[in-house]
Design goal:
single chain; alpha+beta; Alpha-Beta Plaits; two-stranded antiparallel ribbon; about 45% helix
């Protein structure tokens, strides 16, 4: 079980953003007293795939990794409204193709995604350098036109 602050650290998001996701029901959790508790399964569901255990992820944010980290990192959540799951997968595959051929200047860029069938929406959570974000947003713009 994770706290909202731990999930914020794992996802590199502000704790208020995580709490907003919790209130909106976008991230499954339970309240224990006045605090939210998020299961690893709830976190996996939100990200749409496998995640590292919280302890492994927190250990990786030590001084050694920070020395390799670019000075500026950007995160973004993108919702793309789609007709069906196949369109969501087509967009996701295109984005992952860009990531697989990534420029070294992108640093440790990352993308997670989830398809929300009831809302007919594909959600992409991006982390990386400003240059990565610029290039990937331009790619997404062209893909979705």
């Amino acid at each position: 079980m994770y706290t909202a602050d731990q999930v914020a650290e794992i996802l590199h998001l502000h704790p208020k953003t995580v709490r907003r996701f919790l209130r909106q029901g976008k991230l499954n959790a339970k309240k224990v007293g006045k605090q939210w508790r998020i299961t690893e399964e709830g976190l996996k569901q939100f990200l749409g795939g496998k995640i590292e255990s919280g302890l492994e992820s927190m250990e990786k944010t030590g001084d050694q990794d920070r020395a390799k980290t670019p000075k500026v990192q950007v995160s973004s959540i993108i919702d793309i409204f789609v007709e069906d799951k196949e369109e969501a997968l087509r967009i996701a595959n295109s984005i992952f193709a860009v990531l697989n051929c990534k420029d070294p200047d992108y640093g440790n860029a990352r993308c997670d995604h989830i398809y929300m069938e009831d809302e007919k929406k594909a959600r992409f959570i991006l982390w990386g350098t400003p240059r990565f974000m610029r290039d990937l947003l331009a790619c997404i713009s062209k893909i979705t036109q």
